[in-house]
Amino acid sequence: MIDKKDLHYVASLARLKLKEEDEEKVREKFSMVLDYVGMLNELDIEDVEPLINVNGMSNVMREDEIKESMDRETLLANAPEKMYGCIKVSKVIE
Amino acid sequence: MLELHSLTIHEIRDMLRAGQICSKDILDSVYSRIEALDDKIGAYLTLTKEEAYEAAAIIDKKIAEGEKLGDLAGIPMAIKDNISTKGVKTTCASKMLENYVPPFDAHAYEKLKEAGAILIGKTNLDEFAMGSSTENSAFKITRNPWDLERVPGGSSGGSAAAVASDEAYFALGSDTGGSIRQPASLCGVVGFKPTYGAVSRYGLVAFGSSFDQIGPFTKDVEDCAILLNHLYGHDKKDSTSLNVEFGDFTEALNKDIKGMRIGLPEEYFGEGIDPEVKKLVLDGVKVLEGLGAHVEEISLPYSKYALPVYYIAASAEASSNLARYDGVRYGYRAKDYSSLEELYVNSRSEGFGEEVKLRIMLGTYTLSSGYYDAYYNKALKVRRLIKQEFEEAFEKYDVLISPTSPTTAFKIGERTDDQLAMYMSDICTVPINIAGIPAISVPCGLSKGLPVGMQIMSKSLGEASIIKVAHAFEQNTNFTKKKPTL
């Protein structure tokens, strides 16, 4: 079972905070899934290449052309807080 | 006479062209059905009645003036609420996107709209398409039209329930590990998961980008073929979109299947599969054998590793894809925070539901330093083995057939506390997404009054073989015609 410290570390990497009352349940579920997917360890796959794209495609490039994009007002319409035509966040520089 | 709402796309399309009905009649039929039933079923999150009637008026005017009509003119459609619809809320059934209104259309939706189809509403799902029962929606549960105490499957449960209850003529869903086929099976409708890259993912809210595909729910196989013709095609805005000629899938309808080679992978009929589900699928296979298909049992030994591969790789992709929800540019922002870091953490912790957070954390873990090789990279290696195994099978067989879901619809609440039991719901569908191949679920009978689905798979871009077999099956049985009593 994943220990509490590791679980907190993973949560912090994912920018998530666990509620204290949920912690045990999450730890249990998390460990159960990890144990289950550990099934892959029984395979000897040292020499197998990882599969990245099922259709064998790699980077798709295009010309860097200047095109019309969405206007500022449309883009800002979903912002939770805005000011002076910008997205507003709390102060990041002391 | 059958009521209008119970008809298929091709049937109402013919009636509209013959002048027997107008576009408004079709909308009336579907909205009155929704009004009568959706309080019970809960398929829809948003209805777009006003816009729909405006669109219908334009089509009726075109008809009156003798203008040329699009192939899907006046056909109402429901769309899963993780597919972007410009100006119409797209919530992913998450508190995170409760008020999000996309400024653009998903490519798939745009193509159907261009053909004349009319959006009637957005359907419920498991939050961010993570789940197999639609119980993970932040807003409401959806009930199975065949038994209101049971789940419709998931994650596209709203779309499946809408079509099954005639609250929609067809619907779009998305399928990352079975999210179209499994609910189609549990609700007794046709559901199709396309070859990876055949339908643009542009505007589909990303979950597991190397698995996700948009596909249709329909009342029969002919409607499915009609929709694939519109949905398939290259799109520059999705760099994984295939640039190939797909052909006309309706040409695969009404074809002789004599001599076609069908493989039955034994791993899909073994442990965990309800005996009655197994029996109905094998009865279905006998029908195909009777039509001249050659059937053989085969083995796909890597299949049992499909779920582990999926839960590692799809969760890893989800953790990366859902990193964008930080409370800054759009989506939910926490009320209380004292720093930017806290704004991220609080917004994400309050905005996401339990299952979504669990998968983000799993994905974060398997991608993290020290675990990447042990989990993520290993999963990608096994992914290759699973894909190769399918490729070898398809050298010998035109299609493979299995159950779509190991059981019929389960009771609401039955699997919510048992993580692995819920994940097992997708045991027959997940391998298909891992290999990137196409598959359909078609109804093949009822077990104790609940629908059972038969899954037909083919090699990449082998859709025509699937349609051929599925249509022949449908024409020689009456299972797609069966409806729940509501």
From TrEMBL, chain A:
Keywords annotated in UniProt: ATP-binding, Ligase, Nucleotide-binding, Protein biosynthesis, Transferase
Catalytic activity: L-aspartyl-tRNA(Asn) + L-glutamine + ATP + H2O = L-asparaginyl-tRNA(Asn) + L-glutamate + ADP + phosphate + 2 H(+); L-glutamyl-tRNA(Gln) + L-glutamine + ATP + H2O = L-glutaminyl-tRNA(Gln) + L-glutamate + ADP + phosphate + H(+)
Residue runs in coiled coils: none
Highest taxon in the source lineage: Bacteria
A molecular function (GO) term: glutaminyl-tRNA synthase (glutamine-hydrolyzing) activity
SUPFAM superfamilies hit by this protein: Glu-tRNAGln amidotransferase C subunit
GO annotation terms (biological process): glutaminyl-tRNAGln biosynthesis via transamidation; regulation of translational fidelity; translation
Entry EC no(s): 6.3.5.-
Record's keyword annotation contains Protein biosynthesis: yes
Matching Pfam families: GatC (PF02686)
Entry function: Allows the formation of correctly charged Asn-tRNA(Asn) or Gln-tRNA(Gln) through the transamidation of misacylated Asp-tRNA(Asn) or Glu-tRNA(Gln) in organisms which lack either or both of asparaginyl-tRNA or glutaminyl-tRNA synthetases. The reaction takes place in the presence of glutamine and ATP through an activated phospho-Asp-tRNA(Asn) or phospho-Glu-tRNA(Gln).
Family: Belongs to the GatC family.
Subunit structure as annotated in this protein's UniProt entry: Heterotrimer of A, B and C subunits.
Listed name of the protein: Aspartyl/glutamyl-tRNA(Asn/Gln) amidotransferase subunit C
Organism: Lutispora thermophila DSM 19022
From TrEMBL, chain B:
Catalytic activity: L-glutamyl-tRNA(Gln) + L-glutamine + ATP + H2O = L-glutaminyl-tRNA(Gln) + L-glutamate + ADP + phosphate + H(+)
Statement: the UniProt record of this protein carries the keyword Cell inner membrane: no
Entry annotated with the keyword Ligase: yes
Signal sequence, start to end: none
Top EC class, one word: ligase
InterPro entries reported for this sequence: Amidase, Amidase_CS, Amidase_dom, AS_sf, GatA
A GO BP annotation: translation
SUPFAM superfamilies: Amidase signature (AS) enzymes
Catalytic residues (positions): K80, S155, S179
Any Pfam family matching the protein: Amidase
Keywords linked to the UniProt accession: ATP-binding, Ligase, Nucleotide-binding, Protein biosynthesis, Transferase
Residue ranges occupied by any Amidase domain in the UniProt entry: 26-465
EC number assigned by the record: 6.3.5.7
Any GO MF annotation of the entry: glutaminyl-tRNA synthase (glutamine-hydrolyzing) activity
Highest taxon of the lineage: Bacteria
NCBIfam families: gatA
Database matches in HAMAP family: GatA
Subunit structure: Heterotrimer of A, B and C subunits.
Family: Belongs to the amidase family. GatA subfamily.
Protein name: Glutamyl-tRNA(Gln) amidotransferase subunit A
Gene source species: Lutispora thermophila DSM 19022
Gene: gatA
